[in-house]
Amino acid sequence: MAPRKLNVLVYTGSGSTVESVKHAIYSLRRLLSPNYAVIPVTETILLKEPWAPTCALLVFPGGADLGYCRALNGEGNSIISQYVRRGGSYLGFCAGGYYGCKRCEFEVGNKAMEVVGSRELAFFPGTCRGGAFKGFQYHSEKGARAIRVNVSKDAFKGAGVIPEVFTSYYNGGGVFVDSTTDKNSDVEVLASYASDIDVDGGRDKAALVYCKVGQGAAILTGPHPEFAAANLSPHYDVAGYDELIASLRADDDARTSFLKACLTKLGLDVSQETSGVPSLSRLHLSSISSSDVDDLLHSWEEIISRDDGEEFIRAENDTFHLQKPETMWSVTGLREALTPSDSPDQKPPGLGGEGIVDYSTIIKRIVTHENAWPEAKATPYFNHHAFYSSLQEYRRSEPEAEEWGDFLMYGEVVTSTNTLLEKNFKLLSKLPSGFTLTATTQVAGRGRGNNVWVSPAGSLIMSTVINHPAHLAPSRPVVFIQYLAAIAIVDAVKSYGRGYDELPVKLKWPNDIYALDPRQPSGSPPSYVKIGGILSHCSYSSGSYQIVLGIGINTTNGRPTTSLDALLPSHLAPFRIEKLTAGILARLEALYKTFVRRGFTRDMEDAYYNHWLHGRQIVNLEAQGGVKARIVGITRDWGMLRAEELGSDDKPTGKIWALQSDENSFDFFRGLVKRKI
């Protein structure tokens, strides 16, 4: 079965501008979450990585299309063209629209700015001519304007409510000339410029076009329907810019509806409810023994500062305000909770509405529960009693599980559990092993590389601190801790209760959790999809390696792939995130303590192999010229993938290789680095 296409890739390489990339990623995440992961990619990814099989949409934002040509002409454009013609989708905004045409004509006659020439992709078989309106200047808003665009509603049959006209941001885009002549029967005009333009745009004055390309399709735009007024900053040096923002804001619903219709026409599953930008919630600090919270706060004494009777931790990336539970339901506390957009510690100064948020400027509030666990009304999506009672129950069957999970900090909406710990070393250095931060929703969740996305409710999201003594590192390498975590996750799922041991959950090297796809037709070969992952960050402090071990698992949320609940037969109860979190912590602590005493034991190795997907899998090591190898395990010294090289007859050559992933690849079996052992 072909991989599910769940990635929306936004080009951020040569030629793109930061502003255009920012707007594209913001709008796409808002409209497509949680069905897709919107991921920035560079030309290196497009040229070197196997991105196409999992890509639902490739997006080229505004910028300068000559930069795109320099980076991707030849091989890159051939890969992109093949992707679209085989059923992929391309969305080009402004410069990305010029780039997708057969010919580009920009500012003809203006020697300083003129760009004229053919383009290789040629999704639109004609010319994109611009700027449609005069005044464009590179790296400037002086040529920007709010324009009216007439929608061709017949092109969106079955797409729901579509506006007849909408207001769009414009800055330098083109018009698609002779778009609907007989020879261009595979082209539809989606929208036209409502007013006169400053170049010859033919009879249609086409502002956006849809092009059928082989089995796939492309939408190319002149204006910027992805630009939201909420993300435009005032430009006091540009006359009329405030009016531009006001015009866009007044018609934002129509613009959003049109952009949704375009994404739907490209075959994407668009969220019915537009995802807003959730406000950050309080963080609730508690302990299995509530009085221990006071001891933990005492150990933080040297990093706490006091202003007007209020306590703060001003760490490297975030500022934390320590509060008592009794202030939560005061008039001031309720006002903060009910009007977050007006609260200075919820939104950065000057930001309103649904715009892009710089979360590092927002003060994070920690409520310290020193007398009792948080009340249900304070944490309606996480039951602390269920968590701590489950932890005690698991400890009865795991004698070595004694401390991890004793301290828990929970937030309904956080930036990223990993980032809040690893980027704030002043706080991290004061945390004991087993301290765990968990959340219901992340708005800036961390993934491999620089991937960032919203983690929806229903995911198990946790980050645990492990202080690994430095003197143990040579014989107990830190790399094995991610393997211990993987074993702990699968063990916790399968030991959740009677009947859960048969759930088809597997490990993919080095740090992903996969499950049998329940949507696979009966009788088809088994197909596994990713439902979780592990992200480990390591730093050094006071004789220990401080590891922030992040874990994310689709537990009750079925999108974007599937979830643990979807695997359950009807007679088994759904998973409770509180209980599963406790089970993972207890199992992980027991495994880690055994690892410290005895290393990565044969029992651990066997447990890992019992759950993994790669038994004797044959792979081609493309980075080494296509050498064929069979995976036989992991090395017991540094935890690398162990493989035996195969000859042309698929028989072992006698060479054994250790393989290490670059951890930034779309496919771990691309970009493997090998060394002989």
Structural account:
By secondary structure, the protein is an alpha+beta fold. The chain is built from 15 helices and 31 strands. Strands 14, 15, 16, 17, 18, 19, 20, 21, 22, 23, 24, 25 and 26 form a 13-stranded mixed beta sheet that branches. Helix 1 links the parallel strand 1 (7-11) and strand 2 (37-41). The longest helix has 22 residues, at 577-598.
How would you describe this structure in keywords?
alpha+beta; 29% strand; disordered C terminus; 13-stranded mixed β-sheet; globular; 31 strands; 677 residues
Q: Rg from C-alpha positions?
A: 27 Å
How many DSSP H or I helices? Answer: 15
Task: State the end-to-end CA separation.
Answer: 35 Å
**Helix content, binned percent:** 10-25%
For the residues shown, what is the average pLDDT? 87
Total beta-strand segments: 31
Structural class: alpha+beta
Note poorly predicted spans. Answer: 334-353, 448-453, 668-677
Summarize the structure in short.
The protein is an alpha+beta fold. The chain is 23% helix and 29% strand. The protein is globular and about 80 Å long.
SSE layout and pairings?
Blueprint: E1 7-11, H1 18-32, E2 37-41, H2 43-48, E3 55-60, H3 65-72, H4 75-85, E4 89-93, H5 95-99, E5 101-106, E6 115-118, E7 124-130, E8 145-151, E9 165-170, E10 174-177, E11 187-193, E12 206-213, E13 216-221, H6 241-250, H7 252-265, E14 283-287, H8 292-299, E15 304-307, E16 310-314, E17 319-323, H9 331-338, E18 364-368, H10 384-397, E19 407-414, H11 417-422, H12 425-428, E20 436-446, E21 452-455, E22 459-469, H13 480-494, E23 505-508, E24 512-516, E25 528-541, E26 544-554, H14 577-598, H15 602-611, E27 618-621, E28 627-634, E29 641-646, E30 652-660, E31 673-676
Parallel strand pairs: 1-2, 1-3, 3-4, 4-13, 5-7, 14-18, 17-18, 19-20
Antiparallel strand pairs: 5-6, 7-10, 8-9, 8-11, 11-12, 12-13, 14-19, 15-16, 16-17, 20-21, 20-22, 22-26, 23-24, 24-25, 25-26, 27-28, 28-29, 29-30, 30-31
Helix pairs in contact: 10-14, 13-14, 13-15
